[in-house]
Design a protein that fits this description.
Number of helices: 6
Helix content: 25-40%
Structural class: alpha+beta
Shape: globular
Radius of gyration: 17 Å
Strand order of the largest sheet: 2-4-5-7-6
Order of helices and strands: HEHEEHEEHHEEEH
Strand content: 15-25%
């Protein structure tokens, strides 16, 4: 809800947001997030695609925050994409070893001079949009805050009337090639071979 978003944003700004960290499967989390938004996409007459390979490493982080990031990005994309358009959630390992997750759409886009507003809490990129679309404008700023808690980044690439692509990146030290369903999935940041991730989480 919007109240929960406000509370989460306040915690982040006050430096009181805490990560409940565990190893989890990226594809599973992405699938769950996409399923949550699919009814909204279907009712809007949109194609919602998922392009996440099962071979991705498992990720160490807050599973609920991670899913909230994806749901926020997907919901925004669906909200600002006209009927007949497409929204795609994709993921992969970049050349620098970081995990890249993107949500792209064929929606209304954002003019370059207004991109900064998209990451400002309570801001709408134009008065026309504020009249046409409801919402507090917290989705992207909150997602950015959640990503940064994991030592990651969020960026926006958009062109007015052409569409938008939002990319979130997670650092290599939060990934492992091992199975999430084995003992690794139950380890905590206190175990000896998770020290690096523990340091990342508590900085």
């Amino acid at each position: 809800t919007e109240v929960n978003r406000l509370l989460a944003r306040a915690k982040i700004e006050a430096g009181r947001a805490e990560l409940q960290e565990e190893w989890f499967d990226v594809l599973e989390a992405a699938t769950t997030s996409t399923s949550f938004v699919r009814p909204q996409a279907d009712s809007s007459g949109l194609t919602l695609a998922l392009d996440v390979p099962p071979s991705l490493p498992v990720l160490y982080g807050d599973r609920q925050y991670f899913k909230q990031i994806l749901i926020n990005l997907l919901s925004n994309a669906v909200k600002f994409t006209p009927r007949g358009g497409e929204v795609t959630l994709a993921a992969g390992i970049a050349g620098d070893g970081w995990l890249d997750i993107s949500v792209s759409d064929t929606g209304i886009g954002i003019a370059e001079e207004e991109l900064w507003k998209a990451l400002m809490p309570f801001a709408q990129v134009s008065s026309e949009l504020s009249r046409r679309y409801d919402g507090t404008g917290l989705g992207l700023p909150l997602s950015k805050g959640f990503v940064e808690l994991h030592g990651g980044t969020l960026s926006i690439d958009s062109e007015k009337d052409r569409g938008t692509k939002v990319t979130v990146r997670f650092p290599p030290n939060r990934m492992r090639r091992e199975s999430v369903h084995g003992t690794l999935g139950h380890r905590t940041a206190g175990t000896s071979d998770s020290t690096q991730n523990s340091e990342t989480a508590t900085r």
